[in-house]
Amino acid sequence: MASPFRWFAERRERAKRRRGNPDGTMSLKDHLYELRHRLGMAMLIIAIGAVFGWIWFAVRLGPIPSLGEIMTGPYCQPELAPYRVQFPGEEGCKLLQTEPFEVFMIRLKVGTAAGAVLLSPFWLYQFWAFITPGLYAKERNFARTFVSFAAVLFAAGAVLAYWVVPQGLQVLISFGGDNFITALTGEKYISFIITMLFIFGVSFELPLVVVMLNRAGVITYEALAKWRRGLLMGLFVFAAVATPGTDPISMVALAIALSILFELAIQITRVHDRRQAKVRAAEGWDALDDDEAAPFDYTPSGVDGGTADEKKAVASEPEKRVNYDDAT
Fold first, then answer.
1. 184 with 95: CB under 8 angstroms?
2. How far apart are alpha carbons 132 and 273 in whole angstroms?
3. Residue 130: in which H helix or E strand, if any?
4. Residue 58: how many CB atoms within 10 A of its CB?
5. Which residues pair with 185 in a beta bridge?
6. Does the reported pTM lie above 0.85?
7. Which residue, 11, 90, 231, 289, has fewest beta-carbon neighbours within 10 Å?
8. Which helix (H) or strand (E) holds 294?
């Protein structure tokens, strides 16, 4: 195994070679080294977030309640007090531990998830830094916009799930009437909360996928408008299947939220298709025959859009031989 000093020396040498390439070309071996470095940095950031989440689970951060209080908040709502069992000598609202390492694993799992979410801009940047050299400026802007909206939609879905969980729990617990008492175990309850947050967050990404497919030309506004009723029905069926609980409150809340977001996505595709139709009409693309060439400008241009003299100078330069190593 290579020592840390050798690893840093190799890393510095690869950085020097990369700076010596104006076009940013790298060999396959350098790409693999770069990928290993980015994955290692991402795992290190997630590990730091896990340590922070582990501490936050039992410690309040000023006015911010502890992570344990946030997770048990839906179960400890006053509306659920009549359904919770209270053991003799116990005060407050507490979950039940039935295994020796149950609380340890819950704290580790919740802390890791919370730390990964909080530090997501930092470890996601590692993947972004690995991918972005191979993208055009337009593609980078599109990816940056997509990631931003995806993060906002996921957070909105998680907040909605956290808001509807108490009402859903009240409905689920009340099914037993006076024949059952409720003492939820920590593992089952925390898994239920995390599943709800994840499902709601991921479900909120569906309208964004619709907009992306429209931008890519896969689906059009006319098709979405034609399939609107069937798609809305499918959203309600998806909400009924996706929600882990059988309560109607969480299902209806997810279905209504998805329906609103889906309708908003349809209107966005409508504006985009109208704008594209105006561009096509201005360029005269729709008036072309099937065997007629498109009116594109086929004049080659420089990489950085330089002047005509600069383009001629670049074109007159002799072709350079590309050196490949053993890995390529």
1. yes
2. 28
3. helix 120-131
4. 12
5. 96
6. no
7. 289
8. none
